[in-house]
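User: Teach me something about this protein's shape.
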Amino acid sequence: MRGLVGRPVIVTGGASGIGRAACSRLAIEGAAVAVVDRNAALVDEVAAALAAGCSARVIGIVADVAKEDEVRAAVQRARTELGGVGGLVTSAGIFDGGDMNLLADVPLETFARTIAVNLTGTFLFCKYALPLLLEAPPSANGGTRGAIVTIASTAGLRGHGFGSGYTASKGGVVALTRLLAFQYGEKGVRANCICPGATDTPMTGGVYHDSEYLARVTPRIPLRRVAQPEEIGDVACHLLSDDASFVNGQVIAVDGGATAM
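Assistant: First, the predicted structure itself:
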């Protein structure tokens, strides 16, 4: 993918699932990667493994995306150690078990924490990364500078019938991304959103390894299977690259065709 070699990119939620897959592909493409996650042990493990497998610069940063001071410090550390910030992937997200209830039965603490991580965390990393993205050197084929890829969910497009906090937070990420594309496009920063469908990640708790559950889910997906994290991470990398230099403000469902039904 063009334009990724040497580009400094921050990935939140980078120690597992979609975030880890994006970090891996970015490192393979030669980007300098800041793996950000609140799991300290896993951050170090992932960063070390990626650095050992390629020549790219990879660092691990421990931060809670819902805490402003930690976000500010994480972005500044990435800038210092990687020589700037040219890309951002906001993949950190949670789904709390209490969110499986009907809305009237969802605890406020569950709703608020989900919003704090999934939506406020996205806002905070964009807020502190944007001034640095504006400083990034322009691409060779269109003048765009930095790029942001947010990770939402198909829940933010149509709702899934459950997950009040999750659905609200992901719908907010979709709308926030469109706002970013409008506000910063003329300044040379692109922003696009990926809405994954059913994806086998640690957050789903192995539910897609249950053959009976899988048999109920896959008929609603035209490709008749769930995604692997790498299939989402690859799209994120494409959107960061110069191969997507005229793609801005788009909300892309990577869902095997589920939202087309």
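Now, about its shape. The mean pLDDT is 94. DSSP finds eight helices and seven strands in the chain. If you'd like, I can walk through any region in more detail.
User: That's plenty for now, thanks!
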